[in-house]
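[job 4471] stage=fold_predict status=RUNNING
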Amino acid sequence: MYPPRLAQLQQVIHAEIDSGLYHGAVVRVAQAGEILFDAVIGSAYGGGKHPLARDSVFNLFSVTKAFTNVLVMQAIEQGRFMLTTPLTDLIPEFKGHDREKILIWHLLSHQAGIPIIFEVKPGWYIDDFEEVSATVIENVKPVDPPGVKAAYSPLVNHVLMATAVVRTDPSKRGYRQIVQEDILDPLQMKDTAVGLRADLKSRKVVPDFRGNYPIGHKSRKVEGPNGAFEDETAVMPWVGVVSTVPDMFRFAEMFRRGGTLDGARLLSAGMLQLATRNHTGERRNELYFERGRQLGLPEVPAYIGLGFSLRGEKLAHHMFGTLTSPRTYGNYGAGTTMYWVDPERDLTFVALTAGVVEHNANTARFQRWADMIVAAL
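[job 4471] inference complete, writing structure tokens
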């Protein structure tokens, strides 16, 4: 790596924090598993309060979906269902309204025709997964045939896939236990949990949405509009995991190494090769196209794999940068969290940040960082 460029990256992050774009960041970059940049900058909240630490615990928001995706892929590898299995074979009460046409791979690639829904009922409680699942199954219907549009699903797809995983689990485990035993324990991710585990609370960064995310996340057990993020018992397979940068680095490294880490194999290399290909063709991402129009940004392909976002071929605004290779893949969440792997350059990037950033500004921030990282090679 070229040290001056990494020093400039640190200066850029400091400047962004000083400008008020967000409060702080914990960032790790590695090549071939060797850590080359490991920065802790800024604080958990505005005004420099509560400086961040390397082991600060963050809500992952939609990076949680990556854990659900892994469980789905594992279930496929175990023969419990297939990528081409109709969802209604696994959730029979979901039938009707052309829902029988939705296959598992449609859900993984955000092409199921499900409307873009952040909440099924205004002001509902989301801490009880069985209740949320029943509400989604009863109320959500497709608005397009599957495979016609790429429309990022903030909630519904991963509620349905998690329901399928739980219902087909041979040991009849719940979602939290499956994540713990099939992902966290094998990867030795000791500071990661579904829900805010009690021993992590003292290091936890309470999300500051700063007006950038108007939807609430209510729990019956913890007061406040976003109490579900502070609830130890909440099970939310689309937004409910908490973690640290060191733990998420292990998660990302597992992908970079072809589904295995330190003797634990979570996925096959063949599954990852298929999952990290573009499965949305030239279709745009309907959600982010609408947000990009606010800045007059041109329409670009969605570049979505099976459970992963991809960098893709075209030169355009992208959270994974413009200098990363087209096969770069990863996941991101709500203006704060991200990891990506560039398989051509053997790079792993993880960042968890404090203070939710508006979508377009967040894209620009992470694009800038990614390009500086590649430029440092």
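[job 4471] summary: Residues 359-375 form the longest helix (17 residues).
[job 4471] exit 0
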